[in-house]
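Worked Example 4.2. Read the sequence first, then its structure tokens.
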Amino acid sequence: MPILKEVKDELGDAIKIVKIDIDKNQALAQNFQVRSVPTLILFKEGKAHWRKSGALPKNAIIDVIKTHA
């Protein structure tokens, strides 16, 4: 998603974005109960703190990240 690149560009090293190909990583997708694409999951200290299926605008993603920072 190009939006994720924009989010990374704006927040820089404060965040790490990892994109997973669920077709190649089916076990991981099952583990996190990913049922639709895209699914965004925010992790902090190794734990999922927020998740949302479906596309979001850049500002909404940034707001979520800042809320959980």
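Now turn to a second chain, presented in exactly the same format:
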Amino acid sequence: MHFITGGAFNGKKSWVKKHYQIEGHSHYQWVSAYQQDPLPFDLSTFGKQLLFLEGIEQWIKGLLLEMDMDESRRSWHERLVKWQRWEDKNRLNRIILIGTDISKGIVPLEKTERTWRDVTGWCYQDSAEKAERVDLVWYGINQRIK
């Protein structure tokens, strides 16, 4: 598992596409919360071994609409465990998680927005812990932190 985060509009998607050299290839599947794709749980339904999950902060926001903070984090963690098992089944299986860092800046006034920010931070910590590699991308430049 590879986790990439960084600011909004800071070049994460471009960096990922270049790093994984996916232009013109069909060996991958791109799933995006920004395109209203549903948050996957069971990856066996996907026909590709390289799976990009973009916009994870939006999926976490969706979890919070259905359950409380603790349940949302638990649900995210269950997915991470299941996804890791999927990767372990085949050495070519690889998940790339891409999420915008929403922890910077002014703390939101609305409780729901603060909750989203908190839970996203916790889920990102869980993602970073499970990931083999973690990169920050700012202004199109990556910094590998794990």
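Notes for the reader: The two ends are 12 Å apart (CA to CA). The chain has one domain: 2-144.
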